[in-house]
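Is it possible to get an amino acid sequence alongside its tokenized fold?
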Amino acid sequence: MSDTSVNPLWNALESSTADLERLMARTDQVVAGGSILLSLYAAVAISPFLGVTLAALSAVYFVYFSVSAALLSRGHGFAALRWSNPLVEITVPGTALIGIAMSEGPAYALGSWVPPMLFTLYIGASLMRLHPWVPLLAGFVAASEYALIWAVAIRGQVDPTVTLHAPRVQLVRVTSLLLFGGAAALAVRAMRRVIDNANADVRSKELFGKYRMLDEIASGGMGRVVRAVYCPEGGFERPVAIKLIHPHLAADEDFVGKFRTEAELAARLAHPNIVSALDFGRVDNTFFLALEFVDGPTLNHLMAHRREVGLPLPLHLVAHIGRELASGLHYAHEIALSPEGLPLRVVHRDLSPSNVLLARNGSVKITDFGVARALGTEHSAQTHTIAGKPSYIAPEQLRDGTIDRRVDLWALGVLLWELVTNQRLFARREEAATMYAVIEAKIAPVSSLRPEASAAWDEFFLGILERDPNQRFASASDVGAALSLLADREGAASAQDLAAVVRSVLHVEELELDPTRVE
């Protein structure tokens, strides 16, 4: 028996079944009322005894189904009546068989199509009760009823040598009713399995009844991101992105711990330029993180599109995007607080174009703090693992594993250099070559690749792409201030300006990116 409390399909079907039960009770009530009139006619035209007997039986049916219909209309007794109604209904064909035998004779009754049709109709109707025992019991009652009527009221009054009247034919009929009831019960079980499977599919696209899963946005070796709708019982809806780790990783306590840390850090980073974390939990055999849904492409898609069409992004928009990202990094590095009120000093460690989202309205948001590190009161930390995409990793990370907020500034510098020049800076076909380029490759002045870029841009990149972190910009706020000066030179840019560019990217149906390039 399915648990209707957690099965929305069953809830809907149970409601429909209740409506059907009320309709059948009303129908049976009308049929019984009509039978009373026919019985009174039979009392006058055929036999008073027959007519009165059938009228009394019809009156009993009429009273029963009237009471049943009244109870069901008031929403009472459905659980009991879904069992008792079919068992009362299945006696109607037997009553018809007796009436035909009394009025037209036993031989005619055995050859009439009315009783078999009624038996089939009522056993078939019991399917709609959605309980396998109901049609099985109806088939058994029908078979027993037919066998009893034949043995008591008909057998001794027909010629057994006639094929239609032979006991073996009656045995076939009794067996058929039993088999039909059994087949109907199997059909109900099959229906229930289909409904349960459909419900499981629906529930697999929901999390705790709050999220309706839609299409997949991205997938990787660690998990996948799915577009979803937050739809609580209150009735309002909100688009969200659900990040799910693969089920086989849910058993890895270390990985789950990192995923939980990501959720905790993201929840503390409430800033317009950082994707908000909304919920974290476990469902079935996996963990999930609900995030703010940003309707738009990644910066990676924008950059690929601009390279494809051969048009670099206008400099005033580069400055605008840089300031927005610097603002988000400044909040993560300096402002975000722990539950105890202490600075978190969150370092993203994986800032890259694929982790920057551009919304249709022109907003810029940093996402995916999966490898972020909260330094707390420490100014820097060392790690034995390299995190992030090779072409955006800071040189000091590759040399000795040192990380502090300046590694994010280096990544931001690489990202902005590529936006200005419309070229990749350190990316090579081999990962080792990319890492070597990060440490040793010469960084060309952007003015040599884009003549309209002023010397101020070259000076900016000298400061943010300094391989010695002690000579680099010290903070995201310093980067933001430098970009504000560049924005004053290039002209003001707004979110609406960026939104127009984002819409042009969304119009591109498919971006053919070179899969051999290493980020």
